[in-house]
């Protein structure tokens, strides 16, 4: 749907983006990650043709992206742009028409989304009278009103409580089921793990990582396993040898434990199980993969060390 090829951007001789390339596939949710100032918003603005790249290009459906393609894109900027003195109803209809909807289409879509978000009673309220979360809902409605094929969302969960975060998350997954393609820039790593298919990580304008969520977590794993068992803790510990390091433990009862172990010296999980089976009753075994937050922090720290050399 979207292809970004070798995009670079400079401001006042400072490199904001350096040779960034990635693609957004149909029916995919892509996480665009990076610390503040990494260049994420600049990249989103380039894709939306708000600003131009100094090098590289963006294509839509295989064609060089042009103004005519923007009608198929819904963009939610981080800087929310609602007219404060306008009512919710007038705001939605106005922006719907700007996106090419007829009055009837805009009204039908508005009614659908006001009902879906349970805010019909707020339709006559001015934007300035709304809470931050309520205004966020209106902004989201304006972004998706014209049923775009591509959504580009800059911090879509900002300003929402956990209930409304879950509401937006479900809507994004519904869009994915319909074949919509979505780019999300967010600092909420839990949402990245739960709804994104792939992620790219940018730091100081450079591409640091990209891949599926599964592959990225696998890439940074540390051979850490969680073993749950019933039996004697001392018997379990005595069955181990120097190839394993106990990192942490949870005591559930006198004879029920969960142990976090790190493999060393090339040992495998089967070696561990062979050592402790017969000593205790194993009730669960799970490899502990790093969270996307850990992947994010380790990658940024490593990149910063390289850039500082």
From TrEMBL:
Superkingdom is Bacteria
Origin organism is: Brumimicrobium glaciale
Q: Which SMART domains does the record associate with it?
A: AAA
InterPro entries (UniProt xref): AAA+_ATPase, ABC_transporter-like_ATP-bd, ABC_transporter-like_CS, ABC_transporter_ATP-binding, DrrA1/2-like_C, P-loop_NTPase
PANTHER family per record: ABC TRANSPORTER ATP-BINDING PROTEIN, ABC TRANSPORTER ATP-BINDING PROTEIN NATA
Identify the Gene3D superfamilies for this entry: P-loop containing nucleotide triphosphate hydrolases (3.40.50.300)
Q: Which GO terms describe its molecular function?
A: ATP binding; ATP hydrolysis activity
| Stored Pfam families | ABC_tran (PF00005), DrrA1-3_C (PF13732)
- Keyword check for Transport: yes
* Domain spans labelled ABC transporter: 2-229
What protein family does this chain belong to? Belongs to the ABC transporter superfamily.
Protein name, please?
ABC transporter ATP-binding protein
Q: Does the keyword Disulfide bond apply?
A: no
Q: Keywords in UniProt for this one?
A: ATP-binding, Nodulation, Nucleotide-binding, Transport
């Amino acid at each position: 749907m979207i292809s970004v090829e070798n995009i670079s951007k400079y401001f006042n001789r400072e490199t904001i983006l350096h040779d960034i390339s990635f693609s957004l596939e149909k029916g995919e949710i892509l996480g665009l990650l990076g610390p503040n100032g990494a260049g994420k918003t600049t990249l989103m603005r380039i894709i939306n043709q708000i600003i131009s790249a100094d090098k590289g290009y963006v294509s839509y459906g295989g064609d060089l992206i042009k103004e005519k393609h923007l009608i198929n894109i819904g963009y939610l900027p981080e800087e929310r742009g609602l007219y404060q003195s306008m009512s919710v109803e007038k705001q939605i209809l106005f922006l719907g028409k700007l996106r090419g909807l007829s009055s009837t289409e805009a009204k039908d879509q508005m009614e659908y989304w006001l009902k879906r978000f349970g805010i019909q009673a707020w339709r006559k309220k001015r934007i300035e009278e709304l809470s931050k979360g309520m205004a966020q809902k209106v902004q989201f409605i304006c972004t998706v009103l014209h049923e775009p094929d591509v959504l580009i969302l800059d911090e879509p969960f900002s300003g929402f409580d956990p209930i409304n975060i879950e509401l937006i998350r479900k809507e994004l997954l519904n869009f994915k089921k319909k074949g919509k393609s979505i780019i999300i820039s967010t600092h909420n790593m839990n949402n990245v793990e739960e709804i994104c298919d792939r992620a790219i990580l940018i730091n100081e304008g450079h591409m640091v990582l990209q891949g599926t969520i599964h592959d990225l977590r696998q890439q940074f794993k540390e051979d850490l396993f969680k073993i749950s068992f019933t039996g004697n803790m001392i018997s379990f510990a005595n069955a181990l040898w120097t190839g394993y390091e106990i990192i942490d433990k949870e005591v559930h009862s006198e004879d029920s434990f969960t142990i976090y172990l790190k493999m060393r010296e090339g040992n495998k999980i089967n070696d561990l199980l062979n050592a402790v089976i017969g000593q205790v009753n194993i009730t669960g075994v799970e490899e502990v993969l790093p969270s996307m937050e850990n992947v994010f922090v380790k990658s940024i720290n490593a990149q910063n060390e390289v850039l500082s050399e």
